[in-house]
Amino acid sequence: MPGITRRALLAVTGAAAAVKPASAGGETVSPELQALIAAHERAYAVFHRVFPRPGSPAHEREQVDRIEQQALLAVCAYSADSRGDRRAKAEYLLAVEARGELDREEHMQAILRSMMRG
47-58: per-residue pLDDT in tens? Predict the structure, then answer.
């Protein structure tokens, strides 16, 4: 099945997990990280509304996929300096990874580069 990817399969099955990072393990999470995670959750929700819709144009699916990927990369690239940010980022990315969506080379590179900052 050449056209089926993990992302497409998840879109069809509706698999999703949400992490609410207002506080992570009792630690405060920065408004910046909260905003990045919320933006990714919104983009992910739009992706799941558009992708499985019968007759949705390919360009529309590609656009929402690109927006969702950019939002996820922004979370990956965020330099989590506080304990609460590190925990919230890790919890969120672990939930994303559990869905099988933290699977691009750029994701790991962004995470590792974010650890070198700060």
Answer: 988 877 778 888
Q: In degrees to the nearest 10, what's the CA dihedral of 107, 111, 116, 118?
A: 130
Q: Tell me which DSSP letter residue 27 carries.
A: E
Mean pLDDT score across all residues of the chain: 83
Question: What angle is formed at CA 35 by the lines to CA 70 and CA 114, rounded to 5 degrees?
Answer: 60
DSSP helix, strand, coil percent of the chain (3-state; round to 5)? 65, 5, 30
Vertex 110: Cα angle to 106 and 116 (nearest 5):
145
Distance CA 105, CA 31 (A): 27
At 4, the pLDDT band (50, 70, 90 cuts) reads very low
Q: Find out whether 65 and 5 touch, Cβ atoms under 8 Å.
A: no
Provide the percentage of residues in the chain whose pLDDT is more than 70. 78
H helices present in 14-79, as ranges: 31-50, 58-77
Q: Can you say how many angstroms the Cα of residue 111 is from the centroid of all Cα atoms in its chain?
A: 12
